[in-house]
């Protein structure tokens, strides 16, 4: 919250002061903790209100950026961050916690503090719990949320406190399948489970007729071996990782799927366990690494009858081709939106001057929106963009973003010279009434 915002609130203080505490606390809840605490300077009425908020979001991206820029030292700032969280939790007076989120580079050395934060959050009957310890660079020793730790918390404060948990997100936190399965068994209203970059997750079984789980994403967990799913309410499933044994035994509500691979593993094998549910999917996201092959090959999928949004994230060489996506696009009957995130890796031969390939084009009357991020203005993306513009006879908008996807939001997100001009050349292929937006 900037100074002008504080001044605006101060000038309206008489009106705001007439509101009951419950409403003022509700106003503070969406704010980051730093922002909420800063409101205490407005008046005596606001001085302690932040301590009653039921949303505790500890995130300090500015400091992390300064650490990454070598303007601050990680060890020093980590101590400050931990001390600040401990102080605020000691002052918090909320009876329950709606959201508890910690986002900073923390690891095994901070175990004692993180354990106490989990004690606090669960004792306050937390609903949404997120631990995001994403490092700026590589990190060897992750914090471990162990089965013993959970058992200790439950024996101390009672199992009823964890019954309120609806969402659990763990990034760069080590857990086991046994722990996650136990959480599902004692959290009757748990709807979201997201685990990313875990080094200890091997086998995971999601099973139970009374499961309320609607969202399950297991992303880049290097040791994962198998996932077994029997989830009557599951709507969104995501997996990116090494080759595994995947069993989707029962997921009648599945609408949204993300699949991808690491270590140059092809994702084709993942379609077989999902084959019974392709016809009901409304959104499909593919995360593909295609560095070794000139031609992208995907399985023949003819069952995508209800797919409305297809998103492809692909890392490829700039002498490759994306035309392998065409059979997948043509297999969709009612596709409304197509999104592409392209990360390319230069190779010895450039295809910029190579004549674009001629492909068969089937008109698509449903495709209304096309988005391409990472546009490089070479044959690799121009040929696919031209294909989409020529088949989408009722296209409303195509959005082009020349920036590299994983650099967006960082100081290095600047586009390369000439990319915008290359995107402008697509105007001559626009169908009547369509808009070209270059971000």
TrEMBL record:
Pfam families: F-box, LRR_At1g61320_AtMIF1. InterPro entries: At1g61320/At1g61330-like, F-box-like_dom_sf, F-box_AtFBL13-like, F-box_dom, LRR_At1g61320_AtMIF1, LRR_dom_sf. Residues 104-401 form the At1g61320/AtMIF1 LRR domain. It comes from the Eukaryota. This is F-box domain-containing protein. Residues 16-50 form the F-box domain.
């Amino acid at each position: 919250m900037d100074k002008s915002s504080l001044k605006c609130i101060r000038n309206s203080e008489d009106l705001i002061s007439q509101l009951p505490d419950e409403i003022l606390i509700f106003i503070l809840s969406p704010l980051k903790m730093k922002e909420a605490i800063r409101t205490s300077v407005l008046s005596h009425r606001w001085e302690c209100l932040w301590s009653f908020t039921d949303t505790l979001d500890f995130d300090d991206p500015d400091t992390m950026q300064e650490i990454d820029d070598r303007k601050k030292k990680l060890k020093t700032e980590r101590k400050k961050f931990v001390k600040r969280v401990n102080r605020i939790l000691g002052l918090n007076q909320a009876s329950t916690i709606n959201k508890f989120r910690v986002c900073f580079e923390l690891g095994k050395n901070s175990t004692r503090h993180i354990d106490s934060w989990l004690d606090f959050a669960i004792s306050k009957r937390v609903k949404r719990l997120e631990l995001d310890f994403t490092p700026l660079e590589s990190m060897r020793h992750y914090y471990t949320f162990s089965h013993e730790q959970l058992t200790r918390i439950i024996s101390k404060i009672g199992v009823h406190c964890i019954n309120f948990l609806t969402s659990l997100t763990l990034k760069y936190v080590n857990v086991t399948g046994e722990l996650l399965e136990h959480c599902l068994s004692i959290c009757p209203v748990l709807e979201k489970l997201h685990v990313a970059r875990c080094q200890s997750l091997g086998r995971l079984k999601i099973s139970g007729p009374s499961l309320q789980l609607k969202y399950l994403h297991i992303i880049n967990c290097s040791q994962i071996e198998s996932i077994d799913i029997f989830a009557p309410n599951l709507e969104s499933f995501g997996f990116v990782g090494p080759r595994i044994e995947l069993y989707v035994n029962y997921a009648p509500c599945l609408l949204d799927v993300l699949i991808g691979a690491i270590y140059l593993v092809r994702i084709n094998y993942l379609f077989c366990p999902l084959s019974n549910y392709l016809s009901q999917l409304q959104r499909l996201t593919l995360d593909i690494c295609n560095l070794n092959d000139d031609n992208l090959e995907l399985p023949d999928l003819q069952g995508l009858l209800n797919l409305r949004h297809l998103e492809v994230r692909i890392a490829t060489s700039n002498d490759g081709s994306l035309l392998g996506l065409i059979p997948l696009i043509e297999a969709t009957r009612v596709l409304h939106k197509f999104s592409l995130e392209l990360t390319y890796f230069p190779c010895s031969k450039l295809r910029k001057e190579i004549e674009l390939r001629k492909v068969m084009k089937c008109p698509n009357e449903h495709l209304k929106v096309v988005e391409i991020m990472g546009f490089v203005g070479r044959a690799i993306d121009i040929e696919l963009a031209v294909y989409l513009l020529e088949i989408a006879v009722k296209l409303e908008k195509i959005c082009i973003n020349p920036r590299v996807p994983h650099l967006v939001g960082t100081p290095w997100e600047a586009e390369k010279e000439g990319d915008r001009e290359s995107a402008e050349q697509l105007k001559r292929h626009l169908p009547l009434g369509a808009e070209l937006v270059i971000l």
